[in-house]
């Protein structure tokens, strides 16, 4: 496993990886793109050389994001050895750049949703498939207790950013009649990415509003479980397309109907009027009307928690994703790759002395990973590293991480 730096995702990976290495990866990020296109170009040949060496030593390389440019460039020279898992829906010129990199790579492409696949609109000649992200959830949906006699508890989880739409939700509260607004409690959980001023502005707006006593802002919490248990519904008012919608999926797993923007993968996750509600993005007045109906008529959505849990179990569990990706890896290991006999110890990668982290010795992989019978290496920008800074669907259990 190759990461650009140490981060909170590492403990989750260490349970599965033979070794976690840290190295410079040439990752496209919206922030600092100008520097990357100038001084950063000097580092590209070195990063590309490292990527080529990794491909040469592996039977299969799994690139867990489309923004690791050095590995997408290197993939073209190793036909059949690369899988690129696309988790982002970029906008404008960024989409053009990433689409070009993907086409250049000639890798097997996995999209995390039909929405992501549609956004990239690759030619039919490029092998591609959709595998939804696998999301961990509780053993069963929680009991729904809202009956209209107390305040509706609305939860919003996610990084504090314009894209996520915290301000849209507050605007929707402002638009509610006072008697309805008093029947809503809102909890916003998340932190801003290297932007403390945004956190201060949001906190000041809440403190100065008519809802100050009913709206709370909490920092990023690595364990969302208590927040889901507190909530009655979960709001995801995104302004730009989410590539899938992890929080909406988790909400359904917990039996907490999601109220989402009808955009990108969110409209693919939520069945409007059955497992939750979909409203137009960036339309606080429409969101406000939906909230008013939810508050006033809990009997109208009494069956949503059970239907949402069934949808989660059918489409979005970790086991479903594990089976799909495992089948793909076995398929590619059998039909492509280096042609080496993976059962021969000599065919497996040798240690990478220039990459190995000094903090930890190599580890043995778990039995299920060894059963894939191939030399398998994964490279990617850790979700907390923000990738390109575009709407990327994190696959780690750390929503709202700074």
Automatic annotation (TrEMBL):
Residues 392-402 have a biased composition (Polar residues). The keyword Glycoprotein does not apply. Residues 328-402 are annotated as: Disordered. Residues 153-310 form the Glycosyl transferase family domain. Pfam families: Glycos_transf_1. The keyword Transferase applies. One of its GO terms (molecular function) is glycosyltransferase activity. InterPro entries: Glyco_trans_1 (IPR001296). Coiled coil: none annotated. Keywords: Glycosyltransferase, Transferase. Residues 351-370 have a biased composition (Basic and acidic residues). This is Glycosyltransferase involved in cell wall biosynthesis. It comes from Methylorubrum rhodinum. The lineage of its organism: Bacteria, Pseudomonadati, Pseudomonadota, Alphaproteobacteria, Hyphomicrobiales.
């Amino acid at each position: 496993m190759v990461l650009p730096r140490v981060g909170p995702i590492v403990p989750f990976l260490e349970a599965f990886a033979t070794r976690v290495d840290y190295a410079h990866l040439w990752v496209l990020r919206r922030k600092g793109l100008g520097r990357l296109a100038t001084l950063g170009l000097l580092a590209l040949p070195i990063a590309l050389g490292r990527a080529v060496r990794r491909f040469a030593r592996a039977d299969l390389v799994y690139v867990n994001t489309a923004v690791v440019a050095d590995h997408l460039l290197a993939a073209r020279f190793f036909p059949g050895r690369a899988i690129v898992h696309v988790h982002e829906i970029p906008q404008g010129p960024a989409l053009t750049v990433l689409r070009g990199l993907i086409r250049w790579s000639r890798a097997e492409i996995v999209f995390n949703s039909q929405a992501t696949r549609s956004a990239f609109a690759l030619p039919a000649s490029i092998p591609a498939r959709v595998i939804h992200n696998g999301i961990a959830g509780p053993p069963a949906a929680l009991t729904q207790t809202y009956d209209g006699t107390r305040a509706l508890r609305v939860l919003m989880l996610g990084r504090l950013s314009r894209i996520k739409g915290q301000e849209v939700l507050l605007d929707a509260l402002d638009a509610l009649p006072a008697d309805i607004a008093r029947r809503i409690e809102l909890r916003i959980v998340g932190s801003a990415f290297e932007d403390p001023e945004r956190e201060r502005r949001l906190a000041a707006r809440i403190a100065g509003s008519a809802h100050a006593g009913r709206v709370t802002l909490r920092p990023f919490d690595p364990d969302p479980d208590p927040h889901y248990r507190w909530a009655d519904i979960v709001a995801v008012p995104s302004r730009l397309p989410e590539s899938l919608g992890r929080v909406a999926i988790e909400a359904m797993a917990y039996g907490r109907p999601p109220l989402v923007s009808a955009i990108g993968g969110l409209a693919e996750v939520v069945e409007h009027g059955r497992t939750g509600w979909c409203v137009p993005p960036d339309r606080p007045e429409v969101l406000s009307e939906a909230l008013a109906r939810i508050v006033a008529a809990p009997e109208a959505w009494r069956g949503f928690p059970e239907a949402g849990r069934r949808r989660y179990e059918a489409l979005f569990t970790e086991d479903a994703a594990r089976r799909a990706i495992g089948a793909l890896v076995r398929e590619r290991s059998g039909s492509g790759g280096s042609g080496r006999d993976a059962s021969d110890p000599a065919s497996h990668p040798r240690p990478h002395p220039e990459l190995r982290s000094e903090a930890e010795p190599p580890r043995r992989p778990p039995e299920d990973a060894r059963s894939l019978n191939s030399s398998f290496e994964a490279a990617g920008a850790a979700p907390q590293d923000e990738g390109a800074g575009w709407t990327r669907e994190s696959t780690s259990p750390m929503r709202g991480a700074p």
